[in-house]
Amino acid sequence: MAFTLLKKTTNIDFVGVRRYAYALSLFILLLGALSVVWHGGLLYGVDFAGGVMVQVQFERDVPDQQVKSALADIDLPGLTVQRIGDGGRDYMLRFSAAAEGATENLRANMNSALSQRLPDNPVTIQRLEMVGPKVGSDLRNMAVEALFYSVLLITVYISGRFEYSWFAAGILAAVLWAVVFAAGYTPVGRMWGVAVAMVITVIMTWRLRLNFALGAIVSLLHDVFLTLGLLTLLNREIDLNIIAALLTLVGYSLNDTIIVFDRIRENLRNIPVKTAAADMPSMGSIINKSVNQTLSRTLLTSATTLAACLSLYLLGGSVIHDFALTILLGVLIGTYSSIFVASPILLAFGDVGQYHRSQQAESYEKPGEHGVV
User: Fold this and answer.
1) Distance from C-alpha of 316 to C-alpha of 302, rounded to nearest angstrom
2) CB within 8 A of 120, min separation 6: which ones?
3) CA–CA gap between residue 258 and residue 157 (Å, rounded)
4) Which of 151, 225, 279, 305 has the largest CB neighbor count within 10 A?
C-alpha cells in the first residue's frame, strides 16, 4: 500500500487565510528591518567587510572575557570574541585589520600572547583568514549580482513555461542585464544598479501581465528578505556561506513554487474550452484545489529536507553552522511562501478567464479535414 500523508479529500481554504499570512510576513519583515537599522546595516562577516577572522580552541573551558584580556596588548582594532559550539573551548575572534606583517607573524603573536596569559590552558589556532576591504567589497557586489541574475533567469523560465512569453521575457532580461552592466561603469555602482533593475523587473512583469513570473519573483524576494531579517535578529554575520545557502534556498523555493504552478496550469487546462464565463470556477477555488493536491508532496519534501538540515545544524560543526541555520530557516519560509505568497499573486492580478485562455494551445485545421483541400 502506498504511503499517504494526507487524505485525498483534503480541502483546506488557503486562499481564505491569505491576508493573515500577509500580516505575518509583514510583521517579520518589519522586525528584520528594525534589526538591520538597529545594527546600522547588515552584519557583514570578514568575507564582505574585510579584516581578520581567527578560530581558536583551548584545552579547557575559558571565559570569553579572559580571552579578550589576553589579547589586549596586541593591536587588534575592533576585536570581538564569540563563543562557538558547545562549552567554552572554541572561540571565533574577529577584528577589522591586523598590523603590518605577514599572516604567520600575526599567528605567532596571537599564539604567544594567549600562551603567556593563559599558561595552564594550551591553545590551538585552527583557522586564520585575512580579507582586504577591496576584496570584501568586490565579493559583496558579486554575491548580490549572483542573486539578481538567478532571479532574472527564473523570470525568463517561468514566463516561457507558464505564459509562453519567451520573447518578451528574453528582451526584458537583456535590457535589465544591460542596466546592471552599465551601472558598473558609473559612480552609482553595480549594487544600486541591481536594486534598480530588480524594481524594474517587478514592475515590468506586472505591466506585461506575466503573473506567474511575478508570483515567483515576489515569493523569492520574500524568502530572501525574511531570511536575512531573521539572521540579523539572531546576530548572524552575512558571509559567503550564507550567500551559498541563500542561492540554495532560491532554487528550493522555486522548485516548490513550480510544482504548485504546474498543478494550477493543469487544472486550468481541464476546464472545457467552451465553458461560459458564468460557469467558470473561481481562481481562488482553482488555487485551493491545486495547493491541496500537492500538499502531501510539499510537506514530505520539506520534512525530509529539514531532517537533513537539522542534522547538519546539530552535528555538522561550527564551520557549516550558519549555512545549516540559513537552510533551515529558508526551507520553512520557502514552503510557506509557495502556498501563501506565490499562488495568491495570481488571484490578485488576474482572473480565471485570463489564465484559462493563456493555457489553451492554438488550434489549426488540418488539410482536407472538412473534405476540401
Assistant:
1) 20
2) none
3) 10
4) 151
Q: Are the C-beta atoms of 324 and 313 separated by less than 8 Å?
A: yes
What are the pLDDT digits (tens) for 327-341? Answer: 999 999 999 998 999
Q: Which cell is 255 given?
A: 522548485
Closest CA to 261 of 171, 169, 347, 150: 347
Residue found by looking up cell 570581538 in the block: 80
DSSP per-residue letters across 123-161: EEEEEEEEE-HHHHHHHHHHHHHHHHHHHHHHHHHHHHH
Q: Are 90 and 83 in contact (CB under 8 A)?
A: yes
Residues 6 or more apart whose CB falls under 8 angstroms from that of 115 comprise 122, 123
Burial of 74 (0-12, 13-18, 19+ CB in 10 A): middle
Contact 158, 152 (CB under 8 A): no
User: For the chain, how far is it from start to end, CA to CA, in angstroms?
Assistant: 55
What CA dihedral angle connects 280, 286, 287 and 289, to 10 degrees?
160
Q: Is residue 280 within 8 Å of residue 356, measured between CB atoms?
A: yes
Radius of gyration of the chain (CA): 26
Instruction: Dump pLDDT digits (tens) for 218-264.
Output: 998 999 999 999 998 888 888 888 888 888 888 888 888 889 999 98
Question: What's this model's pTM, rounded to 2 decimal places?
Answer: 0.79
For residues 15 and 290, give the distance between their C-alpha atoms in angstroms, rounded to a whole number. Answer: 11
Residue whose entry in the numeric block shows the C-alpha cell 526584458:
172
Strands 123-131 and 80-83: unpaired
Q: How many residues does the chain have?
A: 373
Q: Which distant-in-sequence residues (6+ apart) come within 8 Å of 75 by Cβ?
A: 98, 99
